Amino acid sequence: MMTSTDPIADLLSRIRNASMTHAREVVVPSSKAKCALAKVLAEAGWISDLEVRETPPRQILVIRLKYDASGRSVIRSIKRVSSPGRKVYVGRQEVPIVANNFGMAVISTSRGMMTNREARKRGIGGEVICEVF
Questions:
Q1: Could you report the per-residue pLDDT of 54-98, keeping only the tens digit for each?
Q2: Peptide bond into 96 cis (omega under 30)
Q3: Fewer C-beta within 10 Å: the chain N or C terminus?
């Protein structure tokens, strides 16, 4: 298996591709950052569920995707903002508003990963990981 230089971008691509093919779940190698990102997406209602499974030699993360009543994916767009080569940081005043507040950004802060609304409410900035709408 080939290792990814940007595991978060790999996770987002797998979610994007799976939602376009109407797959029920996405399976990726687990990491703390991926689990934290998936947890934020689940709490915000963009994915239905996540589970970490022990499969020797390492853990895997299983993400169950969410679809509306007509069978369309809840996630219309999911894109990486910050990358290993180009980090995008925002102060508490510049926390982005995504799709006129119909979408959300995931911010990695000193207090963990959270949505842009949560970061704005707490008055903290950080690295903009991705945007979803």
A1: 988 899 999 999 999 999 999 999 999 999 999 999 999 999 999
A2: no
A3: N
Q: Name the DSSP class of 24.
A: S
Joined tokens for residue 36: 């934290």
User: 54-59: long-range contacts (C-beta < 8 A, 24 or more apart)?
Assistant: 58/29, 58/30, 59/29, 59/30
Q: Going from the N-terminus, what domains does the chain have, and what CATH number goes with each?
A: 7-132 (3.30.1490.10)
pTM for the complete prediction? 0.93
Dihedral (Cα; 52, 54, 57, 63), 10-degree rounding: -30
d(CA 110, CA 119): 10
